[in-house]
Amino acid sequence: MASTIGSAISSISATPRRSSVATAVNGISSLKSVSFSSRRKSLPSIRLQPAPLRFRISCAAKQETVDKVCEIVKNQLALADNIIVAGSSKFSELGADSLDTVEIVMRLEETFEINVDEASAQNIATVQDVADLIEKLAAEKSA
Predict the structure, then answer these.
(1) For the chain, which domains are there?
(2) Residue whose C-alpha is closest to residue 32's, from 56, 55, 54, 53
(3) Which residue of 31, 110, 111, 134 has the fewest C-beta atoms within 10 A of its own C-beta?
(4) Residue ranges of the Carrier domain (predicted)?
């Protein structure tokens, strides 16, 4: 059995689907598709098609944006002066319920002149999340 598998594996050959398989873009191979086929019926064809390369650039928000968001959150939740609100502060830990979060988002929309869609608003957990979202929306608005 092992010799059958070994001989079947030795007969597998890689055949590129594109003529320029080894083309490189900024040092990254642009291989789009590879298929392997066997001469024997015992091994099924294997076809690999990687997902397109996607680059995601993620930057932390500017400190001034984080500070402004912290101030708005602290005022909106009427927190005492001794409570520190930082980028890592979670809304749930600050005592914010869903209504408070909606009011905070509305205040941020007015302050930063942006529009936050409902899906993005539901993914907000920390002050840093809000600041990053604000910077992203502001960059999209100015582009």
Answers:
(1) 2-48 (no CATH), 63-142 (1.10.1200.10)
(2) 53
(3) 110
(4) 63-138
Q: Catalytic residue among 81, 97, 100, 132, which?
A: 97
**Tokens found for residue 43:** 């091994």
- pLDDT, mean of each 10-residue run, the chain (143 residues): 46 44 43 49 51 51 92 95 93 92 93 92 91 92 81
Is residue 100 annotated as a catalytic residue, yes or no? Answer: no
> What is the per-residue pLDDT for 142?
84
Identify the three-state secondary structure at position 126: strand
Q: By three-state DSSP, how is residue 15 classified? A: strand
This prediction has a pTM of 0.57
Taken in order 101, 107, 108, 114, the sign of the CA dihedral is positive
What is the helix (H) or strand (E) element at residue 16, kind and residue range? strand 13-16
Question: What is the secondary structure of 22-69 as a DSSP string?
Answer: T-EETTEE----EEEE-SSTTS--EEE-PPPP------PPPHHHHHHH
Tokens representing 90? 């979670």
Q: Which residue has 């409570």 as its token pair?
A: 83
